[in-house]
């Protein structure tokens, strides 16, 4: 055998290690296997917030494509800091993803390089990512270095070594897994009756000897060639022909993607290691994973309830698998498949989502008094969009009203964004305040004073039957209109530009509609996006067509949570760009809400003119007259889609009108009589 005293170079053993030797290896790696957050993590470093620091790369560092995606995801996250003194968590630039000593990606001298870091401190408050550990023939969890007090974000985690509430199990993903966005799932409306051609499928390697061979080598026992298709091949490795047996046959006649997309269940047996690529492939394909990997700590099991999305079997009971899958009813199959699509899209479709989920779990541990509960993690839109710093109570989020049997508040707060001086009692903003205050649903009016002129005295503002408060913007920027001001106490916000023209009837009707769709933007001015194929970019249009994908926030209702999400979720660089341009903040809010809900906004009632025409063209508020305004909005569309990694906006052709709108009947029969006269 080869050995090396550093414990960091290839060690090739030509016979299987004994159980005692495997335990010794495990005990050496996990000397601190009783580590928990309470015993091995320094919470005092996190008093100024949860920040993550990445060590600067050292000369000669070779970083794999997959690990570079992980580092890039952290750098672009809201948690990243370039100041180690502010860091709560530290991440290595030393690539630790592949610790298989036979791999070309194996990095030498990791132990020496890690221990030379100035703030290593035996790994305390460090996070180490790993996809492959151990090597042929036993594939133990040997990393080639001691992790000490560091947390492991590890694929193929074994429950025997996994440190609960400390380590994190992540999925095994390939180097081709996208950095952002990611492919969508395959569950379509046409799939709604959960009937697919196959009941259970698998296609992959078969191991004749060694670890992981027991299950895969026995799959032929339950393959029936009809609706249970389990195809294995021993055609892998250098000497596969020596091991070829009578059951060998080429697999090319069955396309793998076709099997995945046409089966209700997909077998996910262990390979040489506990996890495999089949897991994520099954999730994306809306094929319910049937997991046969005893001892595997499933990815993000600390927060994800896998019983709602997978069948967890036992390798020792392989022959029972077909009957188990056939006992699952159609409604249950549909529910399981729908959950696979939610989990895929929320946490697994890109490297950025896998990394973000990892960091959010750790933040929940650090700030346990405001952590998410299982409902937030396991229900739409998912834990990454439900920030517990806003509220740890699911009933405070618009996404869970129906699930919890809660109704949104019966009142709204109008927030009027003001950029021009208050000139007289006939100013557009004064007329707008009077019209909105007459609404029986209006709780209060907040005027956000972002004008360069001094704040007018209270006597200059109109008298209203509802409280009127004027808040002076601290920064007087465009993004400040979506700041979560403490003065806003209602669930619903009516966002208004100062030159918006709305009647009381229009306000009332839009609010009634919003109460049925509290998670969406509901309003009047609609816009749309399109793909400009000639320039390979997204376009923005204000033309009146039969569909739309945005409702501008110059006259729209939405839930106040989106103010918090806009301020604390969107990267500071995008907010700075919006403020510099004094443009696109309404588009960015539409991108955010559509990314969260996966649904379009809702337009109410036909209304072509919603701006006050008397506003002087030279005023600061008349930015629509600026010839650069439209070009900037085109540019914003593409910058925002690159941030997310996909285009979240969804087209819609639905417009909601009052009953009897435009019908040839007496006006006395209509509830919202003023709307048709506008």
UniProtKB/TrEMBL annotation:
Q: Name one Pfam family in it.
A: Exostosin_GT47
Q: What is its main location?
A: endoplasmic reticulum
Q: Which UniProt keywords are listed?
A: Disulfide bond, Endoplasmic reticulum, Glycoprotein, Glycosyltransferase, Manganese, Membrane, Metal-binding, Signal-anchor, Transferase, Transmembrane, Transmembrane helix
Kindly give the membrane topology term recorded for this protein: Single-pass type II membrane protein
Q: Which cofactor does it need?
A: Mn(2+)
Gene Ontology MF term list: glucuronosyl-N-acetylglucosaminyl-proteoglycan 4-alpha-N-acetylglucosaminyltransferase activity; metal ion binding; N-acetylglucosaminyl-proteoglycan 4-beta-glucuronosyltransferase activity
Gene Ontology CC:
endoplasmic reticulum membrane; Golgi apparatus
Q: Where in the cell is it found?
A: Endoplasmic reticulum membrane
Give start and end of each Exostosin GT47 domain.
47-328
Chain spans, region Disordered: 1-22
Q: Which reaction does it catalyse?
A: 3-O-{[(1->4)-beta-D-GlcA-(1->4)-alpha-D-GlcNAc](n)-(1->4)-beta-D-GlcA-(1->3)-beta-D-Gal-(1->3)-beta-D-Gal-(1->4)-beta-D-Xyl}-L-seryl-[protein] + UDP-N-acetyl-alpha-D-glucosamine = 3-O-{alpha-D-GlcNAc-[(1->4)-beta-D-GlcA-(1->4)-alpha-D-GlcNAc](n)-(1->4)-beta-D-GlcA-(1->3)-beta-D-Gal-(1->3)-beta-D-Gal-(1->4)-beta-D-Xyl}-L-seryl-[protein] + UDP + H(+); 3-O-{alpha-D-GlcNAc-[(1->4)-beta-D-GlcA-(1->4)-alpha-D-GlcNAc](n)-(1->4)-beta-D-GlcA-(1->3)-beta-D-Gal-(1->3)-beta-D-Gal-(1->4)-beta-D-Xyl}-L-seryl-[protein] + UDP-alpha-D-glucuronate = 3-O-{[(1->4)-beta-D-GlcA-(1->4)-alpha-D-GlcNAc](n+1)-(1->4)-beta-D-GlcA-(1->3)-beta-D-Gal-(1->3)-beta-D-Gal-(1->4)-beta-D-Xyl}-L-seryl-[protein] + UDP + H(+)
InterPro entries in the cross-refs: Exostosin, Exostosin_GT47, GT64_dom, Nucleotide-diphossugar_trans
Q: Which GO terms describe its biological process?
A: heparan sulfate proteoglycan biosynthetic process; ossification
Domain Glycosyl transferase: start-end pairs: 412-661
Q: In which pathway does it act?
A: Protein modification; protein glycosylation
Indicate the family of this protein.
Belongs to the glycosyltransferase 47 family.
Its annotated function is as follows: Glycosyltransferase required for the biosynthesis of heparan-sulfate.
Q: What is this protein called?
A: Exostosin 1
What is the name of the gene encoding this protein? LOC107377760
């Amino acid at each position: 055998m080869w050995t090396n005293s550093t414990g960091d170079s290839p060690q090739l053993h030509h016979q299987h290690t004994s159980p005692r030797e495997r335990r010794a290896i495990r005990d050496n790696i996990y000397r601190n296997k009783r580590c928990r957050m309470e015993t091995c993590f320094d919470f005092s470093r996190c008093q100024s917030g949860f920040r993550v620091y990445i060590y600067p790369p050292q000369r000669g560092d070779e970083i794999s494509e997959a690990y570079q995606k992980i580092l890039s995801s952290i750098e672009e996250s809201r948690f990243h800091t370039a100041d180690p003194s502010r860091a709560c968590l530290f991440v290595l630039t030393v690539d630790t993803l592949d610790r298989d000593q036979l791999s070309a990606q194996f990095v030498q001298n990791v132990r020496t390089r890690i221990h030379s870091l100035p703030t290593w401190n035996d790994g305390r408050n460090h996070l180490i990512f790993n996809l492959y550990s151990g090597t042929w023939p036993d594939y133990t969890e040997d990393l080639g270095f001691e992790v000490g007090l560091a947390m492991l974000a590890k694929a193929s985690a074994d429950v025997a070594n996994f440190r609960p509430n400390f380590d994190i199990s992540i999925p095994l993903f390939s180097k081709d897994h996208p950095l952002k966005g990611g492919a969508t799932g395959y569950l379509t409306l046409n799939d709604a009756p959960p009937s697919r051609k196959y009941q259970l499928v698998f296609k992959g390697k078969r191991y004749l000897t060694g670890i992981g061979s027991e299950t895969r080598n026995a799959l032929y026992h339950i393959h029936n060639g009809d609706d249970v298709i389990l195809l294995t091949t021993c055609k892998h490795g250098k000497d596969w022909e020596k091991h070829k047996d009578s059951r060998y046959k080429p697999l090319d006649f069955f396309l793998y993607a076709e099997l995945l997309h046409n089966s209700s269940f997909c077998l996910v047996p262990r390979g040489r290691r506990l996890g495999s690529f089949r897991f994520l492939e099954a999730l994306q394909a809306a094929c319910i994973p049937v997991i046969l990997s005893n001892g595997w700590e499933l990815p993000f099991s600390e927060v994800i309830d896998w019983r709602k999305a997978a069948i967890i079997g036992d390798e020792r009971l392989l022959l029972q698998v077909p009957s188990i899958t056939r006992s699952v009813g159609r409604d249950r199959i549909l529910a399981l498949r729908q959950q696979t699509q939610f989990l895929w899209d929320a946490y697994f479709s890109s490297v950025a989502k896998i990394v973000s989920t990892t960091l959010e779990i750790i933040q929940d541990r650090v700030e346990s008094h405001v952590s998410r509960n299982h409902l937030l993690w396991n229900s739409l839109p998912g834990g990454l969009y439900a920030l517990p710093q806003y509220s740890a109570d699911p009933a405070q989020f618009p996404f869970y009203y129906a699930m919890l049997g809660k109704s949104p508040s019966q009142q709204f707060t109008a927030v009027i964004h003001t950029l021009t001086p208050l000139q007289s009692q006939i100013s557009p903003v004064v007329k707008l305040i009077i019209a909105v205050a007459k609404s029986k649903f209006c709780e209060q009016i907040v005027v956000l004073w972002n004008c360069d002129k001094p704040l007018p005295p209270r006597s200059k503002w109109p008298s209203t039957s509802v409280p009127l408060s004027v808040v002076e913007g601290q920064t007087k920027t465009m993004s400040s209109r979506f700041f979560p001001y403490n003065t806003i106490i209602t669930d619903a916000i009516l966002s208004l530009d100062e030159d918006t023209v709305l009647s009381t009837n229009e306000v009332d009707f839009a609010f009634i509609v919003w109460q049925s769709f509290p998670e969406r933007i509901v309003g009047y001015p609609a816009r749309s996006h399109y793909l400009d194929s000639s320039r390979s970019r997204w376009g923005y249009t204000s033309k009146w067509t039969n569909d739309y994908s945005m409702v501008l926030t110059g006259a729209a209702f939405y839930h106040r949570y989106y103010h918090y999400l806009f301020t604390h979720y969107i990267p500071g660089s995008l907010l700075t760009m919006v403020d510099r341009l004094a443009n696109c903040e309404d588009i960015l809010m539409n991108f955010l809400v559509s990314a969260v809900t996966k649904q379009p906004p809702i337009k109410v009632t036909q209304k072509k003119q919603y701006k006050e025409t008397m506003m002087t063209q030279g005023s600061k508020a008349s930015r629509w007259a600026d010839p650069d305004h439209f070009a900037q909005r085109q540019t914003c569309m593409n910058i925002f889609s690159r941030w997310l990694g996909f285009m979240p906006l969804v087209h819609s052709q639905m417009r909601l009108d009052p009953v009897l709108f435009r019908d040839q009947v007496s006006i006395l029969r209509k509830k919202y009589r003023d709307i048709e006269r506008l």
